[in-house]
Predict the structure.
Amino acid sequence: MKRIIGTTLACAGLLTATACGGSDSGGDADGPVTVTVMTWESPETNAAIKKALEGFKDDKITVQLIDTPSGGYGDKLASLTQAKKLPDLFWCGNDTEQQYTSQGLLVDWSKRIADGDGDFKADKFVASAMENWKTADGQMGGLPSLMNTYGVWYNVDAFKAAGIPEPKAGWTWDDMYAAAGKLANKGGAKYGLVADQLTSADAPFTMSLYSVSAGGAPFTDNVNHPTKAEADDKYTEGVTKLAEAIKSGAVAPPGYDASNVPALFSGGKVPMMFGGQWLAAGFQTDKPKIKYGFAPFPQVTTPTTLYDSVGICTPQYTANEDSTYKVLQYLNTKVWDAVLPAAPVAPPAYTPAQESYFSALTKSDQTTVVDTVKADLAAEKTVGVRFTTQWSSQVGDLTTAMYQPILSGKKPVSDLQAYVGKINDLIKSQG
Amino acid sequence: MNRDGPRGGRGLSRNAGSDVKAAYLFIAPAIIGFTVFVVYPLIRSFYLALTKYNGLTDPVFVGLANFRRLFTVDPAFWPSLRATGYLVVLYVPLSLAIGLALAMFCNQRFAGVRIVRTLAYLPVVLPAVATITLWKFILNPQVGLLNTILEKLHLPTSNWLQSPAMSMPSIVIVMLWGVGGTMIIFLAALQAVPTELYEAARVDGAGPSSVFFRITLPMISPIMLLQVILQTTAALQTFNQPKILTNGGPGFSTSVLMLSIYNNGFSNLGRVPQLGYASAQVWVLFILIIAVIALTAKFSSLWTYSDNTPD
């Protein structure tokens, strides 16, 4: 019996040891190494990435793109993280990079990219992206790969039919709400504008677009290392205007299901929506039945836009840092040139690789997208999309409980200060 | 005889001993499974509920801080408890009533009854995620099938899942789509009621309502008790429908406890999870379920019929 128990324990120990051995990459410093890569892209984009990775030539390194469905990436990442089975290179958001780095889970690339050889150096990346990928102590648990820019997608035909000028750089928030009012309840559309970013859990951050553009303060001083939140007069003015637009039925209220809004937009049932530049890639393939355009966010006095970028992270337990970094470099410098012409999802953060993105959009006649993305990347004033801190989910709950009811008209705008007070209490309690 | 007796006794004792060993051997898988998958997680989750733990670094003991945050700070907890209670109150009576009505209908003798039974049970065997996703399209206020039909009939439409007032009733409608499971258990109970009771009642001139309230209902009341407990427990643990249909919104209107636990414990988008805090929520749910079952069982003697009366 003792022998059976002993054997069982030994097997269990062996299984545990092999299961917790970190990344599946094999090899030591000198032997052959397999570098694994996991993305959140669609099967088509993954196929293009896989093909592009075949061009990576190194006798000692094999690159393996892990076949993974694009849905539920967050859940997948969470389970792989807890099992200590993260691939050597995995697609990650700025918030994941900040949180995981603070837990000591990721390899710090800051020194390598600062001292980089050839063209693969920090100064070749979009400056704001590099800045926002640094933790408070200057670490970089990954490198930014693609920039997300945002703006307003609009149905050209619906604007023409309503006799409204098309949105363009310099248009104002008042212009936008007025247009939304005229477009609501027309041609099968219920609301004139669906703007999930203005009504969802991230809404308070997006409203900084208004206050900063008007010369006021953003909702928070820093999304990565906040010391305070505030709602000044300009911010309050922005919230008041939005609440009025929602009340009038021009803008979709909080709770509107945003999951199929791009499909409704393509079908002509949503005439104007907030959204990211990545929708252009889908529109290029699916060919919406409407004529559409993409405009920068409205402004009060100064152009202001949202800042967001995604990137590629590496777990601490990657088998061979040098090999992983070589593949990371290849991904950032070469792969996008092969992938973006067929699927122009986003402009690369590595600026020399941006050309292929813009030429792909120009070729497919998406000129308004090119103009807006370029304007966004050059914008002087940017605001973060959400806190990247570990306690950010608690902010989301406060937003649902206190901010969204203000937008829905269930609570007065004066309650904004109580909401901000709660956020500041949370910031203080987290040190 | 005397010599045989003890010898026979020793023989019996040896057999009994090996029987006991065999018995332990046979129940060992169940005991090991129960210990590994129920007892250990229960103890571990209670310990984690007293810690700050993200699954990535070692847990840090914080005493009752998670429970304090739950009851006094977290703006999502009380609304999620309210949403859970609302769901139970709406769903359990409706599922029992509709399940029983369907079972009584399917207990009749008419041509095609087997097809009707199959159709009523069919949603139970269909993949839940697929049918719930389909319901999401049906309930879409702008292009959904339900509003389109209502509009054609000149009836009032609704925002369904996107309305704070209608979101939970909409979820309950989707849950009732699977009422065939309740029906099938009631149907088995109805078929076990002795037919002579009905014949005697008919001879005595009892009407349909008397037969239902004085014979059918008392005779199936033990099964009704089982159903109340099963449905209440299931309703308290509802997750799929709110996760797929509304993700807890609008506001907190459908943010049931299980969804809140999931969001905190396995937070999406690469955020660091709060497993310690989620474990505290799990214990609140566990205690809630135990309390509800205990109360139901305590008062069950008031309305359940049992023929196990002492002689």
